[in-house]
Amino acid sequence: MTDLRTYAEKFLAAMENRSPDSIAPLPAPDVVEEVPMSFDGGPAPAEVLTGRDAVLEFLGGLTTMIGKVSWLDREFTVDEAAGVVMVECRGDVLLAGSGAPYRNRYVYKFVIRNGLIQLIREYANPITVAGLRSSLAP
Q1: Bridge partners, 12 (sequence order)
Q2: What is the mean pLDDT of residues 101-124?
Q3: Which ranges carry the SnoaL-like domain (predicted)?
Q4: N or C: which end of the chain has fewer CB within 10 A?
Q5: SS (H, E, C) the chain
C-alpha cells in the first residue's frame, strides 16, 4: 500500500514539473476536483470538475498559463484511517508570457479510496485570485 502522503506529493510535483499527465494513473475515473470559494462574491464554487479527463485537461490548461510554480513551506496532515491528506503551502508562481509573479496561500484536501484519488479540493485566498483574474482580463 502506498503512503497517502505520496499522492499529494506526486500531485504537487506534477504541477511543479508542468506535467499533469504524469499523475494520470492516480485519479479515479470519477474523481472530483473543486475550488469551493467564489472569486466574484457569489455562493457558487469557482470550479467543479468531474472525471479524470476533465481534471487532467484543467491541470494541463494551467500549465499554459503558468511558467513556473514552486510549492513552498509544505505542511502535510495525513489521516490514514479516513484516507485524507491535507496540504498547506505557499504557491510561488511566475506567469507564462509576462513572467509576472503570483503568490498565494493554498490548502489542498485529497481523499484517497482504493488506491485512487477520489477528491481534490483546493482553497486559496480568493482576493488574490480575483486580482490575478482581473489582471488577465482583456
Answers
A1: none
A2: 96
A3: 9-118
A4: C
A5: CCCHHHHHHHHHHHHHCCCHHHHCCCEEEEEEEEECCCCCCCCCCCEEEECHHHHHHHHHHHHHHEEEEEEEEEEEEEECCCCEEEEEEEEEEEECCCCCEEEEEEEEEEEEECCEEEEEEEEECHHHHHHHHHHHCC
Residue 71: count other Cβ atoms within 10 Å of its Cβ.
Answer: 20
Q: Does domain 4-136 have CATH number 3.40.50.1220?
A: no
Kindly report, residue by residue over 53-92, the tens digit of the pLDDT: 999 999 888 888 888 999 999 999 999 999 999 999 999 9
Q: For the chain, give the mean pLDDT.
A: 90
Cell triple for 28: 479515479
Cα(22)–Cα(29) distance, rounded to whole angstroms?
15
| Nearest residue to 112 (alpha-carbon basis) of 87, 89, 137, 79 | 79
Prediction pTM value: 0.91
Sequence ranges of the domains in the chain: 4-136
